[in-house]
From TrEMBL:
It comes from the Bacteria. It comes from Gimesia panareensis. InterPro entries: Znf_SWIM (IPR007527). This is SWIM-type domain-containing protein. One of its GO terms (molecular function) is zinc ion binding. It holds the Pfam family SWIM. Keywords: Metal-binding, Zinc, Zinc-finger.
Amino acid sequence: MSTVLQEHLYRYPFASRIDPGLIQLAACGGDAAAEIDGPFFTGRVMHPREVATMLLTLSTIVRTHFFDASPPQMDPIVTASRSLVRWEGFSGCCGAYARLDLDESAFETERRASGTTNVDFNPEMIAHLSRVGRSDEVRLSIDADAVTLARNQAAVTEKKVRLPRRWIKGLGEVQVYQSQLELKQRFTPALLLPLIQSAARMGGGNQYLSISAGRPRLTTRATSGAIPVGGASRLSALRTLLPLVREVSLYADENSGVHAWVGETDWSRFWLVLSPTLQRGFSGEGQLLDSLANDDWQERVDPILELLAGSETSQQGPAETIDPAELAVRLGCTTSEARNSLAALATNGLAGFDAGSGFYFQRQLPFAETLVTRDQPRLRAAHKLLEQRAVRLLPGDSAEEQAAEVTSNGTTYFVRLRSKGEKCTCPWFSRYQGERGPCKHILATRMTVEAKHHD
């Protein structure tokens, strides 16, 4: 496989430019997109000012560092499918994930197929979007080499960018968290504005949301029934969307502390998914390790890629959504095994999760199997421990519990696998208590137990 695919370094065929009447953004696409002759999406934007505001909001998020000073990555990913045009991006600190889903009714569509690319949002483009008016004629075209946005008579030039590997890692991790989210509350925009103002005054510490007299309220104490919404000051990013949406929904996972806020219109959904605290990013969480610990997914990757490509599933092209249960039936495996295989695709950014529908969706990016473990150092370290025969299973194991000693760098750690929770005596586990995925010693013990059961 070429270095381009292995490194996910997408190179752009030209500098983005604007001619009278249209903006041509330099973009890069995956192999699937390259096979399509011409644009995989063209259409007229039916709500030009509203869509421009949403794209500006997304660009603001990807240019914002909520707690650190990492270099910004201003290149949102755009995916076209049979019913959606989806824009995605991460904040500079990777602790906020934004996604804009535009439905069929957001466009007067002329051509629609499937493909993924990513574009650069430089200051010139941002300034141009700021000038879009309600009565402007705005047209969107997406193909493997360019995204073209035509608006009256305007001109701006964009520069080449690369799709950051950090985003690919973040896309893999954030879909795990989203698959655990549950709908908690729905708010009118009028109710949410005071909440955003309150969050800004409280800063970036731990916060909890409760409902009092029908109104949302933030506190710094974990009262009964309160929902953890750490780093709620990041909600200020949604302020410009409130006049546009009919309601805002809150999804949350109380175990992880990840929470998502969704502004909805009749034709769009804007997702802002926030990490548990202001200081945590999504790119290095290790939530995929549980799914990748066993190697069974490797034999299912190619069949899944073929199914997603649509050659066997539909004459309409690549699959629109991915139901793990249905996928398991088609592959002859369990639903859990299907999810593990999707996790492998997610490490390359190919699979995302929509908490609103409960299904996975795909992005058409290149897949390199070597990247599955390359960006998972704990998984590589666990395999090394297996090679060194560093795991010694202790007697007295049962279906509910297994103990082991794992020797690493001259130190022996005690691991206990239990159905109600795993433990390890290593410093990593002591620090994070499993909140950021399993340590290498737990992973190695799991693999050893799995190998023993297969013998």
